[in-house]
Amino acid sequence: xxxxxxxxxxxxxxxxxxxxxxxxxxxxxxxxxxxxxxxxxxxxxxxxxxxxxxxxxxxxxxxxxxxxxxxxxxxxxxxxxxxxxxxxxxxxxxxxxxxxxxxxxxxxxxxxxxxxxxxxxxxxxxxxxxxxxxxxxxxxxxxxxxxxxxxxxxxxxxxxxxxxxxxxxxxxxxxxxxxxxxxxxxxxxxxxxxxxxxxxxxxxxxxxxxxxxxxxxxxxxxxxxxxxxxxxxxxxxxxxxxxxxxxxxxxxxxxxxxxxxxxxxxxxxxxxxxxxxxxxxxxxxxxxxxxxxxx
Length: 295
Ligand code: SAM
What we know:
Helices cover 32% and strands 18% of the residues. By secondary structure, it is an alpha/beta fold.
């Protein structure tokens, strides 16, 4: 019988929440029960054997470690916000990347976590509480309606934009059946994909209008070109008019964007089969001479 993608053994990853516990202590604790390896891409990310179930582990329950995939953990790491910065997580629930940002920033500075959906705001607040991320301010708002000139927004130096997407890179149980139709969707015929891509483009365009922004990460858990490279390609002229250009995302990672635009080698993809999930990450950096003087 054919081997199914959903049946392939995949390592489990946990991210140490360094706001609550240091990495070496977490390793010491976890190695009592499991074989633990440090990930070579993301600091604080640990790899455990495929069958590991940590849902009820005390370190998970008390927010010292988060069950977070490797590709998902690469996103906040790609933004590289500095402790003390003002940062915006534009579409943030359930908040896994928000609290990763807080850990990278050592709890210093400010993170505005914006979320449109009321129910999901509750999950976001619970994640923030569990992580002990005291520098996060949750905002129940439409990111597209945030005014970049408002006092808090005008200080924002880094934006993480992880908008709603098709989720085609994570729907593992459906993958075995749907791979051929994904290819069909990529012709651009799917109404749903086109609507998602239109929103993603609008959101990315809005991110460029934040006056102090110097780093913007755009990510999806989609395998579709229409939500990934095509969105990035369509905003390049606007990005350039604000002084932004594509910059390499985790350059040591081997799988890059599809070669359908200039700078595709800077984009990062993870592979559904090789990596067990299909993610996409793009990083825009504003040229130093195009940043506001006071920053
Ligand atoms: N970054 C999150 C994490 O890692 O935990 C996952 C974000 S999820 C892919 C996208 C989120 O964006 C959803 O919770 C959705 O409700 C929210 N969203 C969609 N449109 C939005 C908008 N216009 N403004 C703010 N949030 C929005």
